[in-house]
Amino acid sequence: MFRDIFLFEFTYRRGRPATYVYCAIAFLLGFLAVASSVIKLGGPIGTIHANAPFIIYRMTLVASFVLSIITSAVVSVSIIRDFDHRMDSILFSMPIEKQNYLLGRFLGSFVLLIIINSALFVGFITGFALGKIVPWDVAWKGEELLPFALSSYLHPFLLFTLPNLFFTSALFFMSGALGRSSLVIYLQGVLLLVLYQIAIAFLRELDSQYIAGIIDPFSIQTFLFITKYWTPVEQDTKLIPLEGAMLYNRLLWIFIGMVALVVTVRFFSFTSARSKGGRQVKEIADDNLLAAPVTLARIDSWVYVRQVFRLTLMYFRMVWSEKAFIAIVGSGIFFFFLAASKIASVYGTGSYPVTAIMIDQINSSFNLFLTIVIVFYTGELLWKERSLNLHQIYDTLPVPTFVSLFSKFFGLILVYALLFLLLILCSILVQTSYHYYRFELSVYFTAFFWPVLAAAVSVTMLFLFLQVLSGNKFAGFVWCVVFFILNALLNQFGMEHDLWQFGSATLGSYSDMNALGHFVKPFVAFKVYWFAFSFALFMIAVVFYVRGTESSWRERWLTGKQRLSKSIAFSGLMAVVVFCCSGTYIYYNTNVINTYEHTEDKNHRKASYERTLKKYKNTVQPKIVESNSTIALYPSQRSFTAEGFFYLKNKSTEGQESIHIQSSMDHHVRTEVNFDRPFKPGESYPELCYSIYRLDSALKPGDSLKMNFKITYTSTGFEEGRSNTDIVFNGTFFNNSYFPGIGYNPQLELKDKSDRKKNALKLRDELPNPDNNGITSNVFGNSADHIRFEMRVSTDGDQVAIAPGELVKEWKENGRNYFHYKMNQPVINFYSVLSGRFHKRKDHWNNVELEIYYNPGHEYNLERMMAAMKDALNYCSQNFSPFPYKQLRIVEFPRYNTFAQSFAGTIPFSEGIGFLLKADDPAKDLDMAYYVTAHEVAHQWWGNQLMAGSTKGNAVISESLSQYTAMMVMKKNYSPELLELYLKYELDNYLKGRTQERDKESPLVSVEDQPYVYYNKAALVFYTLQSYIGEEKMNTALKRFDEEWLVKKGTYPTTKDLIKSIASTTPDSLKYLIHDMLESIILFENEAVDAVYREDKKGKFEVTLTVSCEKINALVPGQDQREPLNDWIDVGIYAKDNSGKEKLIYLKKHLIKKKFTNLVIPVKVKPTRAGIDPLHQLPDRHSNDNTITVKEFINITSLPIDLN
User: Fold this and answer.
1) pTM for the model
2) Is the CATH number of domain 1082-1204 3.90.930?
3) Which of 140, 431, 630, 1103 could form a disulfide bond with 353, CB atoms 3.0-4.6 angstroms apart?
4) Which H, E and C letters describe 297-310, residue by residue?
5) Domain 596-822 classified CATH 2.60.40?
6) Are 842 and 850 in contact (CB under 8 A)?
C-alpha cells in the first residue's frame, strides 16, 4: 500500500502544471542569480571567481531559504487535497494504515521537491555556461571562470539543500496534516522565513558564534562562522568539511525533521472532520459573510456608498480576525522590538531613538512583513467568497462589481492604516523605554504614515489587477512574484529612469535638520503618476472581475463589455490622462530643465574624459597660492553664486603659456573665468567642462597672475533619482569641488575595472611607489600646495554661514546675514561652506575658541564632543606640534551622508554619526561620538597641516595616524577593557575586508584604495607599535616626522619617510615589527590551550598557562608561508573586581619561540580568564580562542581513592 500511495502522489504531482512552474522558478532563480544582477543570492564578490565553491555555497543557502515557500505549497497540499476534493470520507473508510498513508504522501512530494530544487543547480550551471553571451550586463562577463567541477555543485546540494529540504518538508507536512487549513499552506513558508529573521537577530547577539552555528536551522550562521575569515584563495578552492559545528548542525535538524514526522503519524486522525470543526461551521454561517446590502426599490449613488462602507468594514474585520494575519503582524512587531534593542548601532553603541531614526527602523524591519501582507491578502480577500464556496450565492446578489472590488480595496487600505498606526504606537513605546519623550506625531505621519500608505495604495490596486487577470488566487500570487522580478529586470535592459520603475521616488531619510527637504515635490509627482497608472489598471480589473461561474476569457470578455459603463470608462480615461500629464511633467523636470544621465552615458563621459584629455596630465601648470571669494547662499532656493579670484604662481623653472581650467561637471553649475592680463581662448571641451586659455605672454618662473571667476549654482524643478543634497533648505554643506581647478584631474577618470574594460580602457595608472624622493604633488592634486585663504559668505536671515578661518566680521544687510572669514596662515586647498539654523555651544582651550554648531534638540553628546576636542588638542599639541589656528569648530549637517570630515579649523559632522549616538554605560559602551571627534581633530595635524605625497600609502599619513592619535586620546580616558573591545571590532572589520578584496591586499606601506587596511588594520598596527616600543618613543618619532616635513615647502612625505622616522626610535630587537606590521602582511593563529591555577597557603595564586602560536606571511595571495617564531607577545590574566566585573590584573610581553609554550605566572587574586594577546593587538585570524577560563588545578594523587 505504501508503494501505491507513494507512486500515486509522485505521478499526480509530476503531471500538475504547477510542478513545472516551480521547476521554472527554481531554474530562473539559479540562472538569474548567476547571469544577471537582478537577483542577489550572495553571488560574485571581490577577486573570488564567480563559480568558486564559496559562491555556490552562499547562493545555495539563500536559495534554500527562499524556496522553502515552494516546499510549503508542495508538501502540505498532499494532505489537504483529500479534504478539499471531498475524498477524505472515502479514503479514510478504506483499510489503509496511517503510517503508509502519511509516509507515502510525504515521500512522494519530497522526491518531487528534490527534483525541483535540482533545477536550481541546473540554473547555476546554465548561467555560468551562457553568462558571457547573454545580451545584458553580467558582473563577471569579462572575467575567467574556474574549470567546471561537479563537486562544487554536488557538495552544497548534499550538505545544505537535502537536509534543509528534509526538515522544512517534515515541519510543513506536519502542520498541513494536523492543521488542515488552506491558508496555513500559503502562509507557513512565509511565516518560517519571518520567524527565521527573528531567530537570526537572536543568534547574532550570542557571544558564542559556535553555538549559533549549531542551532541555525538553515546553516547560514554555521557557514558564516566556518568561512568568516577565509581568504579569496581559500574561497576559490576549499570545500566545507562535515565536522564540528557543521556536523552537529546537520544532525540536529535532520533529527528535528524526523521528530516532526513521528509527531505527524502519532497525532494524525483518520476522521473527515477537521479540528475545531464546529467553529468552522460557525464561520461559514457568519452573518458578516452573508451580510450583503439589502436590495432597495430605489437604487442611487448613496446606496452604493453605503454598500461600499458596510462591505469595507466587513472585509477589514475579516482580515484582522485572521489568525495567520495576526501571526504575521505579531511576528513583524516582535522583530521590530527586537531590532530596536540596538538602534542605529555603531561599534555596538546605539543611538537616541529620535523620530527620524525610529522611522528608519520601522521601514527596515517591517518592509518584508508589509510586502507579505499586501501580496497574500490582496489574493486572499479577492477570492474570499470562492475559497468558502459562497461565490455562487454572493455573486448573484444585487451588488455591482465595482462595489465589491472597491470594498475589498478600501478594506485593505483600512487594514494598512490601522497597521501603520499600530507601528507608530510601538515606536513610541520603544522611545518611552529609552526614556525619550519627544513624540513627534506630525513627523510620524508626514515621513512614514502617508508616504507608505500612498505606496501601498498603488501596489494594492496593481496586485488586485493581477489577481483578477490571473483567474485564480495561486496564479495571482505567481504573477505578483513575476512583477517583482520584471520590475527589477528593467535596469538590466537600460530602463533606469524612475518613470519605468513602478512605485519609484521615495522621500528618502527624514532629517531633523532639513525635515523632508526638497524631496516632497518629486515624491508627490511620482506618486500621482503611479497612482493614475494603478487606477487605470484597477478599472480594467473592475470590468473583468470574475463573478459566478465565468471561467473562459471569452465569457469574461463578453461580460466585461456589458460592465463597461460610461462612469467606468470615464474614470479609466481620466486616470490615463492624469498618468500621461504627470509623466510629461516629470519628464520635463528630470530631462528638460535638468540633465538625466544613464549609467552607461556617465561611464562613456568619464571614458571620453580620459581618452581626450589625459594627454594634458603632465602639462606643467601654475599653482593656486591664494583663494579669495565672496559667496551668496540662497538655501531657500537651493542656489548660490560665488565670485572671487585665485592667485596663480608659476613654481616651475619654465615659462607657462597656457592655463588649463577644469570646471565643475555638475549640470547645475555655470563657471566663468578671466585673467588680469591679455589672453585668448584656446581649445575647449564643453562636454567635459575643460578649457585652455592662451596667455599673450608666458608666465615666467616665480611670477603670479590673478584669475577671476564667477560660479552660479541654480536649482530648477527636480531631478531623477537621488538629487543633490549639498545645497539644502537647512544644513547646506559643500566643498571647493564646485570651484574651478587647475589642470587635468585624475579623480574624474572611470575607476571601476569592469566599467573600464567595457569602455576599452586599460588599467588605471598606479600611484608612484613610496620609495620615490622629492614628491611634489600632494593627495589633494596638483592645483595647489598651501594657500592663503579668505572668504565672505552671506545667507538667509535666519541662518548662520560658516567657512574655515577666524570670523573677522559679522553683520546684517537687507534681511541677510553676512560673515567674513580669514585664515591666519596658509592652509591646504580644501575648504568648505556650511549654512543652517544652528544653536551654538562655546568653550575655549588655551587661546583657541571652541565652538559646536548644532541643530536644536541634538544636545545629547555636546559635552563629550567638547571634551574630545580639548583632549585631542592637548594630546597633539604636547606630542607633535602646536595647534596653528585661532579657532576649532564642529558644525552639524543633515544625515544624508554619515561621516565627519576635517577642514582647517572646521569639522563638518553628520547628525547621523555623532550627535545622536547613545553610550548608555561608559564602562561598557564605546563612546564613538568621543572617538570620531578625536579622530577628526587629529586630522588638523595629519592631513591638514601635514599633507602626504601623492604616492601609494598616502592614506597612512592622514587616516592611519589619525586612528592612532584618537586611540591614544581614548587610552587616557577609558579602560583597557574598552580598548580591547574597540580593537576587537577593528580586527573583525579588517579580517572581513580581506575576504571581500577585489584585487589583492597591500601592506600598509603601499596601500591605495583599501579602507579596511588603512583604517581597521592600521588601528591595530599603530596601537601595537606603541605598545611595544612605548608611547613616548612612538610620539617622539611622529614629532620628528611632523617637524621635518612641515618646513619643507612644495615636497611631501611618503610612508617610507614615516617608517624611517619610526625606526629611529625603535630598539633593534623590535625592528622586526616594522617589517611585519608595515611592510608585509603577517597574520597570527594564537590560542589559549589550557589554563589552571593553584592556591598556596598564603592565599596567593599561580597560573599555569599553555598557549599555541603560529605566524603566517600572507603577502603573496594563496601562498601563505609559516614564519619562524621569535616574537614578543602579550600574555594576560583577568580576575573579578569587587563589582563582579572582569579586569586585567596581569599584562606582560613574553618571548614566544615555538608553537606550544607553557608559562607559569604568579598573581595575587583568584584568576578567572587567561590567554595570549588578550587585547587583540595582533592580526589574529581566529581571535575568539585567545583567552580561556582558568580552572582550579586538581591533584589526582591526593584524592582519597581506594584502588582496591
Assistant:
1) 0.85
2) no
3) 431
4) CCCCHHHHHHHHHH
5) yes
6) yes
